[in-house]
Amino acid sequence: MTALNETHHPDLKSWVESANEHDCRFPVQNLPYAIYKPADGDDFRPGVAIGRQILDLRALAELQPFSGPAARALDACRGDSLNALMGLDAEHWSALRLALSRALRAGSPHRERLEPLLSEHATAQFKLPAHIGDYTDFYISLHHATAVGSLFRPDNPLLPNYKWVPIGYHGRASSINVSGADFLRPMGQTRPLADARTPSFGPSQRLDYELELGVFVGCGNVQGRRIAMDEAESHVFGLCILNDWSARDLQAWEYQPLGPFLAKNFASTISPWVVTLEALAPFRVPFKRPADEPQPLDYLASEQNTAAGAIDIQLEVALSTRKSRAGRHEPHVLARSNFKEAYWSIAQLITHHTVNGCNLRPGDLLGTGTLSGPAPGQEGSLLETTRGGKECVALPWGEDRCFLEDYDRVIMHAYCRKEGYPSIGFGDCAATVLPAG
């Protein structure tokens, strides 16, 4: 588990002035990675965010400003994905973070060389930060599982395995998109109507979002080698925001007996920025279960996970519609929740995923599942907010929503806040629902 070091010091300032602004989500204490193309660029390359600017890491590698592990890590940033960097180890990631932090701090002797390598974040194009070979989506929010379960099984909302094993399913990596990539409303079969013998076919009428985080795997493991709890986080490169769009009507008809299929694989959206696990070290909090809850089995337990296995990451989801945009209304915040409420930790997901010998690879993505909180206004999906579509949400510009309609745009944010410390942000995760093709 990453210890605090000089890169986390709250008093650090950057010579990039926008990184020092009060409401900046990309201060020098953050330094997240993305794959981007500057407005005047011909191709995509790795970059790191600093204030409202992006530092071109491919161009920086040509200057060879660093030495040792930092130089080797920077050399892995010459391609058009972060897989090579992810495939290194925590020593190299930490060394590059330290070198970049020192180079971007106020008073750095590197300023003259680095300043020409900056470009505006607002005019950049982005693509997926890594080639995602495999995608596993988990179900780690007890509050979400209970709320959804109560809609269908009021007397027994949680299945008996939930509190013992991190539940997950293998998702579709090929349909994961970067923020800003809109998608078509999915089509498929739905349950037969009461007076019908055959299922219906057509566009989903109960389209939903799911407020999640994504976990990017760094260095992997060989097939057959299990990853223990105490080393699990050394295999994690960083986190992003994830919206796992869901067609609830398709899901209700198809999910038994093998789980989600077409209801989940048509589109998922992630934020372009990957915030490293090291950047999140100041926001660690204890991970504990109440004494009356089942405690994790031995292979899913460790002292360091109990001491600081959870992370205080605030999440929010907002909605804009064609009508609201025409009237220039701000997106309406539908819910806010927090990752620290999750029932399983990142280390437990990695350890459980590999306990049977499964091999993870650099760039693999793990979804947390919908991250809901215990109170009203903390629901991570419309399915929960509207109680299965029975209580629609009233929007301030005069519309309501039970589920998403065409041209609705869902915007998700995540950030860390701590007294006396700069905010750490994840950028935007946004996409618009287009009519079915």
Could you explain how this protein is built, in words?
This protein is 19% helix and 26% strand. With 437 residues, the protein is of the alpha+beta class. The chain has 2 domains: 13-127, Fumarylacetoacetase, N-terminal domain (SH3 type barrels, Roll); 135-434, Fumarylacetoacetate hydrolase, domain 2. The termini are far apart. The mean pLDDT is 96.
CATH architecture of the largest domain: Alpha-Beta Complex
What percentage of amino acids are in beta strands? 25-35%
**CATH class annotation of the largest domain:** Alpha Beta
Q: Count the helices. How many?
A: 12
CATH fold-level label of the largest domain: Fumarylacetoacetate hydrolase, domain 2
CATH homologous superfamily identity of the largest domain: Fumarylacetoacetase-like, C-terminal domain
Classify the secondary structure makeup into a structural class.
alpha+beta
The domain tally reads 2
Mean pLDDT value: 96
Give a quick summary of the entry.
The protein has helices at residues 57-63, 68-75, 83-86, 90-104, 111-114, 142-152, 229-232, 248-254, 303-308, 322-326, 346-354, 382-385; strands at residues 33-37, 45-50, 53-56, 118-120, 125-127, 135-138, 168-170, 176-178, 183-184, 187-190, 200-203, 207-208, 211-217, 236-243, 246-247, 268-270, 275-276, 284-285, 310-311, 314-320, 332-338, 365-367, 393-394, 400-401, 409-418, 421-434. The protein is of the alpha+beta class and 437 residues long.
